[in-house]
Amino acid sequence: MGDINFTIAKDVNLNKVVNLDIDKDVDVNVDNPDQLATAEADAEAFGEQALAETDAYTYVTDSEAFSYAESTAALDLEIEEPIFDDPLGDTFGFGSPQIDIENVSGVVSGEELKLTMNFFTPISAPSTGLSDSVVGFWDLDLDQDPLTGIASNQSFFAPPDQQGGPLGVEVVIDLFSEEFNPGFVDLFDTNGFFIGTAPITYGTNSLEISIPLSELGDDGNLNYGTVIGTFNEPTDAAPNGVFGTVGESLSSLQNIDAPISDGALVWASIPAE
Ligand SMILES: [Ca+2]
Ligand SMILES: [Ca+2]
Ligand SMILES: [Ca+2]
Questions:
Q1: Which of 27, 55, 79 is a domain's end point?
Q2: For labelling alongside 3, which of 23, 94, 196, 273 has CA 20 to 30 A away?
């Protein structure tokens, strides 16, 4: 028997469904003159962002028995973040400034949903009270079903060419609410009931919201739309012609009719029920 050398690197964090290709070899030898029996097996599975491997070896002789088995699994956490670009200069308000979205994106990391919006124009937190304070709504279609939930704020406040994709919204993030609770935004359900708050950070040209998936009761696959502006008016929406997606994409839904708001919405913070 030769030496058996192996190196194990283990970093298991399997929280995502992946499609795996299985490559399996099995070798059994019971005729080795020095050993009563040997058996060896290994299986390897490779997904797009994960791999797993199991090796097992065993033998027995007249005076010895040996067996080992090792498994390795690794997940590439650098999952590509889908970024939805928005044009420069497609603002639709009338005053000054016209806050202009550059892109929106969302990714799940460490059981938290992180939503990011970048801007071509400078922005400030609502709590600063400045003229470039960015307010509005970030609508989440948690079950990726436009037939459940309510019409998006984007569909109500944005012009026809910036209606986004068909969304049935389960949770609305109220970007106005940071005015009175610096560093946090309020979350509301479809009945206008307050769910909780989520931390928000503002850069010179960006904002980021972090929400634990447990607070949303979501699996990390969702669709979204946004409409933002100044305290005076909405100025931009994104994505313009499709919904944004986090996690698994159900792009076939882009072609079905979205619910239409039957109420008169106000460009202001959501009044809690
Ligand atoms: Ca824009
Ligand atoms: Ca829905
Ligand atoms: Ca836009």
A1: 79
A2: 23
106 and 194 part of one domain? yes
Per DSSP (E only), the strands in the chain are 21-29, 37-46, 50-60, 65-75, 83-85, 101-109, 112-119, 135-141, 171-174, 184-189, 194-202, 206-212, 222-229, 234-238, 244-246
Asked whether residue 148 falls in the same domain as residue 247, the answer is: yes
pLDDT digits (tens, 9 = 90+) for 179-229: 999 999 999 998 889 999 999 999 999 999 999 999 999 999 999 999 999
21, amino acid identity: D
Same domain, residue pair 54 and 123: no
> What's the CA-to-centroid distance between 239 and ligand 2, angstroms?
17
Judged by its nearest atom, the ligand closest to the C-alpha of residue 244 is: 3
**135 is a domain residue:** yes
Q: Is residue 57 part of a domain?
A: yes
Lowest mean pLDDT among 42-51, 102-111, 202-211, 225-234: 42-51
Is 108 among the domain residues? yes
- Residues near ion ligand 2 (Cβ under 5 Å): 141, 143, 145, 148-149, 168
Question: Tell me: the pLDDT tens digits for 144-183?
Answer: 999 999 999 999 999 999 999 999 999 999 999 999 999 9
